[in-house]
Amino acid sequence: MSYIEVKGLDYSYTKNKKVLKNIDFSINKGDWVAVLGHNGSGKSTLAKAMVGLIEPSIGSIKIDGLELNQDTVYDIRRKIGIVFQNPDNQFVGVTVKDDIAFGMENLAVPREEMLKRIDFFAKKVQMEKYLDKEPSQLSGGQKQRVAIAGILAMQTDIIIFDEATSMLDPFSREDLMKYIKKLHEEGLTIIMITHDINEALLADKMLILKSGEVFAYDDSHSLMKDKDVFRNSYLELPVALEIANSLTEKKYDSVKEKLWEYVSMK
Questions:
Q1: What is the pTM of this model?
Q2: 120 contacts: CB under 8 Å, gap ≥ 6
């Protein structure tokens, strides 16, 4: 049985405008799934629905066999957490220590256990030296690490990253992606909402949304072979795919241009 099952999911912000339309997909435990789509395709709305921040109009979300509803939402949140685009939106405490503790307090974790987890997960994300700092004194990358520590401390085994790299500088972005890869290697299930194709290529699978519907869902390597999938969903083609297409079509000047562009970005 799939670890995460989403069936027939609809969501509307207004009566006449559906943001999500009949969304169906499943995710196995330990998968890394990148969710892509053009602006307004429903990516962040889907993420909010999966952690119970909004209630779908119709359809169901099951995590580890447990259906998400008003009665089960807190049990579900023991299994799944979310890191937002702007980590400032998640901070409520005066110090880093307070913020890591916040989710555990909501789950009524005993204080002695809570303190052990704060120390353990602060070290895990290399933020143990900042426990008494105010979050406002941290860099963007450090704030994201604190947000991750807070979720890990709740002992969830699914993390959603909702455009978590988009506000970071290139160094912090690369650093966070390395850490996400490490979390995946440790067995966590990763759902990464992103508009960056190169980040998405690191995932096992890609779920592409178009106008609120599932346009494509397959393993990353299979989708990489189909240039029309990206073009028809209004996404930029990965550099490697553009080069491969140009070589196939013998457009060698285009290949040189793309390679130079790619190298210049490194």
A1: 0.86
A2: 153
